[in-house]
Design brief:
Sulfite Oxidase, Chain A, domain 2; seven-stranded mixed beta sheet; five-stranded mixed beta sheet; globular; binds ligand MTE
Length: 326
């Protein structure tokens, strides 16, 4: 967002594994008798193959769409949504990170429930998802950098996970934490190593249990692509996109408002609330409108990204000043 990418560590295109090889990876995994043949594969492909065993949750998709959440826009194409992503662990600017994110191993994946809960626990993602009520929701997504998309997420309400976690009555916030792995995420070990990794953000308990707060485990009728934050990420569509933490490893319940990744780096630009409001500009650009991914069309940005009927009451008693919308 505010940072310049030195690009010093980026792979030249010629060194990246071609997309077609990644697309065929599952077929290859099945076909290969692993050991001896892997040894003769190019390095990048070998790493990707080793990182990604078959996904036992794939059979769960597609899931039934919940038509309650209507949007007035066409769906963004899967290609457009999946080739312009913001995932600073892999690239310190928005862009096509498909090949970089492919190196994130998502199995096994443990989710920790910590802090102010009846019983802190860890659970394998593949076991957690079996206990959650899956559905599909078409949501808008508005990045603070003024681009937007409309995508069919699959997953479950964050409230279902909160119920599973059994927070104490005194918990006021839930912090969501992304993985920390310097071997996987180049930015965590290189120029941006001093950033406050792991990436974190949070919601109040009222926000987290609002019906809109959603944990996405799939998109476009399939398990969620790694560049979107596999195997599970938040989708809080009334807030700027940086609130929607990707590749979550921990849900931490607390009575202290968390200081989040972006708030730590640039508190005058990225606050805790980050509710979308076209009338409150970012200090360096307008928030009045947004570019729809997949072309150059622009549309007016809406208050709470069009979700005011669901969430405006959450903030009705708070001062309606800039801090609520940055
Ligand atoms: N989560 C992590 N861990 N790291 C990130 O850099 N970027 C955020 C959010 N979640 C980010 C993240 C931002 S700024 C946006 S706009 C959305 O992810 C982008 O989601 P998408 O790439 O699926 O469109």
């Amino acid at each position: 967002m505010l940072i310049k990418n030195p690009r010093g560590w980026e792979l030249p295109d010629s060194a990246a594994t071609p997309e077609s090889l990644f697309l065929n990876r599952r077929t290859l995994v099945k076909a290969l008798a692993a050991g001896p043949m892997l040894a003769s594969l190019p390095l990048g492909l070998e790493a990707a193959l080793a990182a990604d065993p078959p996904d036992p949750t794939a059979v769960l998709y597609p899931v039934k769409r919940n038509d309650k959440y209507k949007v007035d826009r066409d769906l963004t194409t899967e290609k457009a949504a999946g080739s312009w992503n913001n995932f600073y662990e892999f690239l310190a600017q928005a862009g096509d990170i498909t090949d970089r994110a492919a190196k994130l191993p998502v199995r096994p994946w443990e989710v920790a429930i910590t802090g102010m809960v009846e019983k802190p626990t860890k659970i394998a993602f593949d076991d957690l998802i079996k206990q959650m009520p899956l559905e599909e929701r078409v949501y808008r997504h508005r990045c603070v950098e003024a681009w937007s998309m409309t995508v069919p997420w699959s997953g479950f309400p964050l409230k279902a996970l909160v119920d599973f976690a059994k927070p104490l009555g005194s918990a006021k916030y839930v912090t969501m934490v992304t993985f920390l792995d310097k071997d996987i995420a180049p930015t965590q070990r290189q120029f941006f190593a001093g950033y406050p990794w792991p990436y974190t953000d949070g919601l109040t308990m009222e926000e987290a249990t609002n019906e809109l707060a959603f944990i996405a485990t799939g998109v476009y009728g399939k398990p969620i692509a790694k560049q979107h934050g596999a195997p599970l990420r938040l989708a809080a569509p009334w807030k700027y996109g940086f609130k929607s933490v990707k590749s979550i490893v921990e849900f931490r319940f607390t009575d202290q408002r968390p200081t989040t990744f972006w708030e730590t780096l640039a508190p005058r630009e990225y606050g805790f609330w980050a509710n979308v409001n076209p009338q409150v500009d970012h200090p360096r650009w307008s928030q009045a409108d947004e570019r729809l991914l997949g072309g150059n069309l622009r549309r007016a940005t809406l208050l709470y990204n069009g979700y005011a009927e669901f969430v405006a009451p959450l903030y009705a008693s708070m001062p309606q000043n800039r801090t609520l919308f940055m």
